[in-house]
Amino acid sequence: MSLPAQPLSPLDGRYQPAVAALGEFLSEAGLNRARVQVEVEWLIFLTDRGFFGTSALGAEQQAGLRALVTDFDQSSIDALAAHEARTRHDVKAVEYFVRDRLSALGLDSIAELTHFAATSEDINNLSYAITVRQAVETVWLPTLRGVIDRIADLAREHRGVPMLARTHGQPATPTTMGKELAVFAFRLSRVADQIAHSEYLGKFSGATGTYAAHLSAAPDADWRALSREFITSLGLTWNPLTTQIESHDWQAELYARVSHANRILHNLATDVWTYISLGYFRQIPVAGATGSSTMPHKINPIRFENAEANLELSSAMLDSLAATLVTSRLQRDLTDSSAQRNIGVGFGHSLLALENIQRGLGEILLDTDALATDLDANWEVLAEAIQTVIRAEVAAGRSSISDPYAKLKDLTRGNRIGGAELAEFVSALDIGDEAKQRLLALTPATYIGLADELVDELPPLD
Fold this sequence. Notes:
- InterPro entries: Fumarase/histidase_N (IPR024083), Fumarate_lyase_CS (IPR020557), Fumarate_lyase_fam (IPR000362), Fumarate_lyase_N (IPR022761), L-Aspartase-like (IPR008948), Pur_lyase (IPR004769), PurB_bact (IPR047136), PurB_C (IPR013539).
- Its EC number is 4.3.2.2.
- Belongs to the lyase 1 family. Adenylosuccinate lyase subfamily.
- The chain is mainly α.
- It folds into 3 domains: 11-118, Fumarase C, Chain B, domain 1; 121-367, Fumarase C, Chain A, domain 2 (Up-down Bundle), CATH 1.20.200; 379-443, Orthogonal Bundle (Ribonucleotide Reductase Protein R1, domain 1).
- Helix content is 61%, strand content 5%.
- The chain has 19 helices and 6 strands.
- It has helices spanning 16-26, 28-48, 59-70, 74-87, 90-104, 120-157, 177-196, 212-217, 223-233, 249-278, 302-325, 335-340, 343-361, 368-376, 383-395, 404-412, 419-427, 433-441, 451-454; strands at residues 162-167, 170-176, 201-202, 237-238, 281-283, 364-366.
- The strands form 3 sheets. A two-stranded antiparallel sheet has the order 1-2.
């Protein structure tokens, strides 16, 4: 017995509630609504300028046409599907859908200006620019900024909490948990700002980007200026030089930046996962939740693991789109058409990851005792400070020790040195008394440099 029809993608099944907001823009229905918007605005644009003896539409007529966009609903989706079943062409279906509205408004006299001098790609490229911009600006980017704010909050909260650093996975010069989280908040803020200033380009220049059809119908019109005016009226940036398609470079740039943000987030997820593994973060049990089907004690860091997987999937899709979309054979081929239908998939996996990271960061608590214990077990990390102070003392003429680095290397490399042993070693050093007292007062927990203050380099929260 066969199953009833099921969603093939988990984004449309298991995870649909987490990514539903993107469907408003990056779904087939969202794209079609934007196509209707472009067709309607082009028609209004032409009649406003009195092309071919037309008169500007009245406010009520314009509102009636724009209602096709503002009132776009399931009946609109069904009507478009019926048109496409006959036309076998999605943009042609949109044209007929708009013509139906013109007839209902008694505007059959201007019906031939629907889709006037436009190739399907004139409609599509503007529609994708509109929908991607809306999805980024109203859904994805605010969610990213929410995660950044959460990381920054944690950075400020834990700014002064000392932590043993691990370079190459080995004990290293201490830092603070807050400073390490601030690094991620700072990195993500830079990329978020770059994405916020992204350009969304558009073209409206005909079958091969030459305005040939436009000029054949109205040779005296300044079609380049009109194209620019129309595109900017939609909140987009005019691309003056294209083939049949807008070249998609803005998309490649945007998707590369989103993929970059994904990879920073992936780094955050793996680091937090590791801190949990080390016991630095304790996970807060969720009532009723099961960590393992066989080991009752377990609380697994699944939010961060889920985020890793979805960030990898998102970047794979966005990287593929960025690579594919910048190439079109000669003046146009259709590889972009199929590829762009997956834009929502790329953003969907990223949004799902953001949601998991946000939840995961809210389900952990810093165990300061664990951090302190780890620091106290690794006094050898002060070797850097000691050999550096000796170098300064030698340079100042207050010490005759030769090769301070080698001296500390012999003492500490591969060895675990306790506080008492290190104090004994420092006490015997041929250095000035002030420097010696400074080193004797130093502990792994206080050897954090400016880590606390560096958190202030974070940009202020909005």
